[in-house]
């Protein structure tokens, strides 16, 4: 009977030592009981997708529920993470990287999310998604880390941080924001005068210097020149700018019921009028009179700065009054040029010599 040809591998196995063959078979049987790397379950770790070999059971985030609204997103529960483990957060498109310990420092909604009490939404890359504005989330993290944080400078920023603090239930930060907002006054308050009696009361009881703008466009005794309406608007705009800039130092009021004047600035110190800038005049045309409204911006600025000298309730600073005055004397203090001072000094010296030497 002829030998049937057999594969080379079979021929080699037939020529092997029986002891070697038994050892190889035993090794193959051990490998059959070890699951392949492909078949091993993988878990979503706090820092991304890693295999089960590098994650302890306490650090696993186990899927719980159906996938999220976007493809690849899923809701998960974080079960017993270590405080030193890092987590990746995507807050409204702003990416943050912090520890579980920081997020769980205080009894907030963040602690509930990262201690397993609430579900969190993760994407396919392991980022935990939070559907909130991420602009102030860094401030919230710093508050959780340190227990205090510098609040935004603007009222709008503090109000936005307050809204985020309420969402995350951070009570101490809520109190801090509300306390600052309660102290902040409105940018500017400009009362509208409705009567002459009210005007006198506001000026007499004001604790600051007063600037009043009288606007009475209804006075149409004469027709207006072409530039009058534009200049009238410029005066109003300047009043708004000055009131915003000096609201903490000057009390601004607006008179819209006024007298026969159309546009007039009045400046009060210690309850008395100290200056006035009238912006209207009558011009004569070939056939009739016209009302002209002007915009003396430089003069208005000058008087506004001068009125700041009356911030002291008792009396204005005499040195500043002397330095800013265009006249020779203010409040009994004389002002001389250098030539006048030298002449007066020389005359005083001559009188002194005559008195000492009568003969």
Textual characterization of the structure:
Strand 13 (263-269) and strand 14 form a beta hairpin. The protein has helices spanning 8-15, 18-32, 100-103, 109-114, 137-146, 155-168, 171-183, 196-205, 228-245, 297-307, 318-324, 338-356, and strands at residues 42-45, 48-51, 61-67, 74-78, 86-91, 94-99, 120-122, 128-130, 192-193, 210-215, 223-224, 251-255, 263-269, 272-278, 280-284, 289-293, 329-330, 333-334. Helices cover 38% and strands 23% of the residues. The protein is built from 12 helices and 18 strands. The protein has 359 residues and is an alpha+beta fold. The model is unreliable at 1-14, 30-69 and 326-342 (pLDDT under 50). Among the domains are: 74-182, Potassium Channel Kv1.1, Chain A; 192-313, Glutaredoxin, CATH 3.40.30.10.
Task: Write a concise keyword list for the protein shown above.
BTB domain-containing protein, five-stranded mixed sheet, single chain, SKP1/BTB/POZ_sf, alpha+beta, elongated, Glutaredoxin, 359 residues
Low-confidence stretches: 1-14, 30-69, 326-342
What is the alpha-carbon Rg in Å?
42 Å
Oligomer: single chain
The helix-strand sequence is HHEEEEEEHHEEHHHEHEEHEEEEEHHEEH
* Mean model confidence by pLDDT: 74
**Spatial order of strands in the largest sheet:** 3-4-7-8-5-6
Quote the CATH topology of the domain at 192-313. Answer: Glutaredoxin
Structural class comes to: alpha+beta
CATH class membership of the domain at 192-313: Alpha Beta
Q: In percent, how helical is the residue content?
A: 25-40%
Strand tally is 18
Overall outline: elongated
């Amino acid at each position: 009977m002829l030998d049937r040809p057999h594969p080379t591998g079979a021929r080699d196995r037939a020529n092997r030592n029986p002891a070697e063959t038994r050892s190889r078979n035993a090794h193959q049987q051990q490998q059959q009981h070890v699951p392949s790397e492909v078949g091993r379950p993988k878990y979503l770790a706090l820092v991304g997708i890693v295999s089960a070999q590098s994650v302890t059971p306490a650090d696993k985030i186990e899927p719980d529920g159906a996938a999220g609204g976007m493809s690849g997103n899923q809701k998960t529960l974080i079960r017993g993470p270590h405080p030193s483990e890092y987590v990746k957060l995507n807050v409204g498109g702003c990416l943050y990287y912090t520890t579980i310990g920081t997020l769980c420092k205080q009894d907030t909604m963040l602690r509930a999310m990262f201690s397993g009490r609430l579900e969190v939404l993760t994407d396919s890359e392991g980022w935990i998604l939070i559907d909130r504005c991420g602009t102030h989330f860094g401030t919230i993290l710093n508050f959780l880390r340190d227990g205090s944080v510098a609040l935004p400078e603007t009222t709008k920023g503090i109000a936005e941080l307050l809204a985020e603090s309420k969402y995350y239930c951070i009570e101490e930060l809520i109190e801090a924001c509300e306390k600052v907002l309660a102290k902040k006054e409105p940018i500017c308050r400009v009362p509208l005068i409705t009567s002459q009696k009210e005007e006198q009361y506001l000026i007499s009881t004001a604790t600051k210097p007063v600037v009043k703008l009288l606007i009475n466009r209804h006075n149409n005794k004469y027709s207006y020149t072409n530039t009058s309406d534009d200049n009238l608007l410029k005066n109003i705009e300047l009043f708004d700018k000055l009131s915003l800039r000096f609201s903490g130092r000057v009390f601004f009021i607006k008179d819209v019921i006024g007298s026969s004047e159309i546009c007039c600035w009045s400046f009060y110190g210690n309850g008395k009028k100290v200056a006035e800038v009238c912006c209207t005049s009558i011009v004569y045309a070939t056939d009739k009179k016209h009302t002209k409204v002007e915009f003396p911006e430089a003069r208005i600025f000058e008087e506004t700065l001068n009125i700041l000298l009356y911030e002291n309730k008792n009396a204005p600073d005499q040195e500043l009054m002397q330095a800013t005055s265009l006249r020779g004397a203010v409040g009994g203090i004389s002002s001389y040029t250098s030539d006048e001072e030298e002449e007066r000094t020389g005359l005083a010296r001559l009188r002194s010599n005559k008195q000492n030497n009568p003969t």
